[in-house]
Amino acid sequence: xxxxxxxxxISQPLSALELEVDxxxxxxxxxxxxxxxxxxALAQTTxxxxxxxxxxxxxxxxxxxxxxxxxxxxxxxxxxxxTSFETNKGLxxxxxxxxxxxxxxxxxxxxxxxxxLPANETFTMLGFETVPATFLLPRIEVLSxxxxxxxxxxRIDGIARSLFQNGSPALxxxxxxxxxLARSRFRGQPGVLARGSTLIATDTECSGTDGxxxxxxxxxxxxxxxxxxxxxxxxxxAQGGTFFTYGPSSSAGLGLGLSSQLSTWTILGDATTQIxxxxxxxxxxxxxxxxxxxxxxxAVAFVPSGVAPSISPAISVANLEIPSLRATGAPLGGSxxxxxxxxxxxxxxxxxxxxxxxxxxxxxxxxxxxxxxxxLFVAGGSIxxxxxxxxxxxVPNDPxxxxxxxxxxxxxxxxxxxxxxxxxxxxxxx
Length: 430
Fold this sequence. Notes:
Layout: E1 2-4, H1 16-39, E2 46-49, H2 62-68, E3 74-77, E4 80-83, E5 85-87, E6 92-94, E7 99-103, E8 110-115, E9 122-130, E10 137-157, E11 171-182, E12 185-188, E13 192-195, E14 198-202, E15 205-208, E16 211-213, E17 217-218, E18 224-227, E19 230-234, E20 237-239, E21 243-245, E22 258-268, E23 274-276, E24 288-296, E25 301-303, E26 315-319, E27 324-328, E28 335-341, E29 347-353, E30 355-360, E31 366-369, E32 376-383, E33 388-394, E34 405-414, E35 418-421, E36 425-428
Parallel strand pairs: 1-32, 2-3, 3-6, 4-7, 5-8, 6-9, 7-9, 8-10, 9-10, 10-11, 10-12, 11-13, 11-14, 12-15, 13-18, 14-19, 15-20, 16-21, 18-22, 19-22, 20-23, 22-24, 23-25, 24-26
Antiparallel strand pairs: 16-17, 27-28, 28-33, 29-32, 29-34, 30-31, 34-35, 34-36
């Protein structure tokens, strides 16, 4: 069993603890390779999109590539400015630094629209930024999707409301069965809007744009506004916008960290997980306001504006020692980084597999790993005094890794405080 008090970089000579972590990491590399082999039964076509038409280019713009590709295909997008697009296909789109959706397409107000994605298909988008332009809203919309949508390393600065335009959410999710956000930043009015959807976010910042009250009132945006949705946040920050005033102040202009209408929330993490209300002169507000329920780890910081309660009394709150998991992917030759946060002394186990549909397990929570292939056990032990267990896993040196998605999930707790499943942590390999 492993007792890890803090994130550890394995070095020589290995202690008994480091040796067991190293053995678990080696085992995990073999497990990832086996999962990869089992998930690649069907061939896929790889398309290269390059605005400069460099060597190997299949298309010079994204819409043409999306139109030609079939579900299951891989699109590698090189740095450049590209045109907005809409799709209902299960594609994997890998970008990177300098890849931007920055040009409008006729009748396409949003930068990216994923609409009507069928069940059993997954749309994946990694390493993209949207840029405001004339007739182009820098936002992503996920609409009426029965399949899974995975957005990772996405950067969007949305539009605030002004005299000349209405505010725009950076990410709009409506009637979507499963949306995963990882290592991303969304700023808008609100940062993220979710209606009738299931959303899981890790290592993601959602912030509202600032507001202004002069002759006209332009309210600030919320970090996240959710209606009739199920939301899980782990290691995230949700920040309401600040309301500046040059006239009589109004509480209507204040941005909340989280705005909830009949939604169910799970908010996990250490002190880096922060839910923060915006500010307005002379007014107070809770960090989370509205209706619904929230399960949260006591380490999470809810920061109100002024002397308001951290969470609105209208929201049902359960403080539970639910473990929080972070998993960060890496390219060929790199290492996946795993970090589990829990209560010191609690037992834990770590599992990995392919992303699956949620399986309710009562008070334990939901399992998000496909039972057809996993979950496969990787490591276990007890959480040390530092409350973190960390390990690195070498990425198999196989080109089939590119575009592959894996889900990690932990289980941990004690008889006294209960045993729970962590949030699922899913990543795609660039």
